[in-house]
Amino acid sequence: MEIDFHDAVNRGFVPPGSGWPGDLAGPRTPVAANARDVADLSELSALAGGARERVDDEAARAGDSAADAASLDELSARISVCRACPRLVDWREEVARTRRRAFRDQTYWGRPAPGFGDPRATFVILGLAPAAHGANRTGRVFTGDRTGDWLVEALYRAGYANQPTSTHAGDGLELTGVRMLSSVRCAPPQNKPTTEEVHTCAPWLDAELRLLRPTVLLALGGIAWQSAATALVRLGWQLPRPRPRFGHGQVMSAHPAEPARPAGDRATAGPGPTGERAGAWAPRLRVVGCYHPSQQNTFTGRLTEEMFDAALELCREHPAT
What we know:
A hairpin with a 5-residue loop joins strand 7 (270-271) and strand 8 (277-278). By secondary structure, the chain is an alpha/beta fold. It has one domain (5-317): Uracil-DNA Glycosylase, subunit E, CATH 3.40.470. Helices cover 38% and strands 11% of the residues. Strands 1-3-2-4-9-6-5 form a seven-stranded mixed beta sheet, with helices on both faces. The protein has a two-stranded antiparallel sheet with strand order 7-8. The longest helix has 18 residues, at 195-212. It is globular. It is built from twelve helices and nine strands. It has helices spanning 5-11, 35-41, 44-51, 57-61, 64-80, 86-98, 135-138, 146-157, 195-212, 222-234, 295-299, 305-317, and strands spanning 116-117, 123-127, 178-182, 216-220, 237-238, 251-256, 270-271, 277-278, 285-290.
């Protein structure tokens, strides 16, 4: 199906199911209109219901991994049509309608950017929010801007990516062993979401972490570090006291607040943020701090390729076993 450029520009976003590469949503995907909706639609039980339509009987019999991958697809679809934060919706769609001069002939995605990467990854890279003319344009997190260029080239050097570039949603990029996501899924004005917007978006992050069950988190910047820490506490993890402050190369270990579930045990262990029960999924989890690969940091030399590679190596050196 060919996307109608003028229709997308007039709307301020690409309609779900209209053929955009990687778009997992469709006309029937439920839309969150407020914070309560986000909490309800991100519950794992609700995601499992939607996921059943994404897997056939044979895949369902394959076990938890297939079910989790389908639930992750359903979560990504629901994230991508969220309209819970009016300020963010207005901004992302206005940017998509007006467009930067360099991209005037391009259709902008104009919707939230879900996570991207290996659905079975135990290594997660967490940023703050999509860029207005990056993921808000391309529809894929860390894609179409200098930050994405820097990050994906580093992942390629480290063996996580099949190519060194990330330009648009249909460019063939594949990640192995890692998944990239943001604390807030919509591009915010001045790259600064409000506290309320971060809080409203939090259940999406919690659900994605619970489905992935990572053992290593690379936090890009201080806000992502804080977001990772608060999410882990919500999900049943205990952090050191006093909590380590963000710094490049800082490593923070998290341990289960209650005994970790055995591998493969889907039973739950502690109160979750949306009325379900959650719990730590491993004996230990590491959070690694890294300066954000923004133009300001990379152009000024505050973050170099060697420093970023070293942060990725820290993620390898500290497996949660």
